[in-house]
# Entry
Amino acid sequence: MIDQLIDLDASYDPEASLYAAGATFGMIGRLALNDQLDVLPPEALVAATQDAVGDLEYALENLPQQELVTALGILFEPTSEQGEFAFDFEVTTTSLKQEFIEFVALNALNDAIDFGEADDAPLDTGFPVSGVSEYRLTFNVVTRDLDFVSV
Amino acid sequence: MAYIQWDRPFFVDPSTGEVVLAGTEGAVAVPTYGNYGGGGYSAGEFGGAPPTTLSGEPLSQEQLTQSGSGSEDPVDDLDYLFYLHDVASNDVGEAYDPE
# Structure
C-alpha cells in the first residue's frame, strides 16, 4: 500500500494529496507504534516520507481557504504565533537500531520540508542514544510555509 | 472535488494506531475519503464489503465503476487504491456476479 501511495501522483486534487499524505504518515506511524518500522527497507521509508511531505506541501499550498481552515483545525493546534499551527509528536526508541531508523526517517522528513530554506538546520534526533525525542511540524497560513524541528 | 468527508469520521487509538469504536476514550477522529478510504469503511459505508470477482480478486477500476452502485464507485485513483487495500484486507469480499 505504501509503495502504491508513493507511485500515485495525487496532485490532481489538493484534497487527494492531503489524504494521501495522511494515509502514508498514518501507516508509518502505526508501524512505529507497534515496533515494526524495520519491516520497511530504509530507502522505502525515506521515499514514503519524502512523498508524503510533497503531498502535504502541495495540499496546504493549494487547498481552498475554507478547507485549509478545516484541515488545520483538525490536524494541527494553533500556537502563540499569529497564523501558525503546529502538530507535536514524539518518538520513543529502545535500541540503537530503532534510533538509527528514527535518525534516517526524520532527517529525510526534515530535508524534504526545509532543504534550501533559510531555516534549514540539522535535526537533533538524539542519535545514537535511545529514548524519547519530541518534534514539531508547523504551518504558517500567511506564508503557507511548512517547517519541522526537534523540540 | 471534495472527497474528504470531515463529518463522517472513523476513530483511531493514538497509542496503538488501531481503529476503535466511536466513543472510545482518547480516540482521535479521522475523516473518511470517497467510498473506500477509512478504517472499517468500504463501499460507502462503515462495515461495508468491497465487491470482488467470484474468486475474490479485486475488480479493475473500470469494472468497479461500471458494475457498482454509486457507493461502490471509487471516486478517483486514490480511492481505488483504498479499494485494493480493502480487498486485500478482507478474507471474503462480496462476490460480483457479472451476469
About this structure: Residues 2-150 of chain A form one domain. The two ends of chain A are 31 Å apart (CA to CA). Chain A has five helices and four strands. The first helix of chain A runs from residue 2 to 7.
